[in-house]
Design a protein that fits this description.
alpha+beta, 27% strand, globular, 3 helices, 3 strands, 39% helix, 84 residues
């Protein structure tokens, strides 16, 4: 089974969201369908970056690492350089 860390972006909010999932496409549908607390206010989320892992623990650790940087610059660096 594969696990993904993903970064999505809303142009309306000019905001990024970082998460992990086994199915990024299905998860994106949930974000845009208003079924996710943090992202329900708009429906224009799009995947900007993703990275694959073989275990959920690895994906969760990477998600925490990215969120822990608390840096929009770092997120945009990942997207620009496609380090996934």
């Amino acid at each position: 089974m594969e696990y993904f860390v993903y970064i999505i972006y809303s142009g309306k909010l000019d905001r990024y969201y970082i998460g992990h999932s086994q199915n990024v496409r299905e998860r994106l549908e949930r974000h845009n369908g208003g079924r996710s607390k943090y992202t329900k206010m708009v429906k224009d989320w799009e995947v900007k970056w993703q990275q694959v892992f073989t275990t959920r623990a690895e994906a969760m650790a990477r998600e925490r690492e990215i969120k822990g940087k608390k840096s929009r610059g770092y997120i945009e660096y990942l997207i620009r350089n496609d380090f996934g």
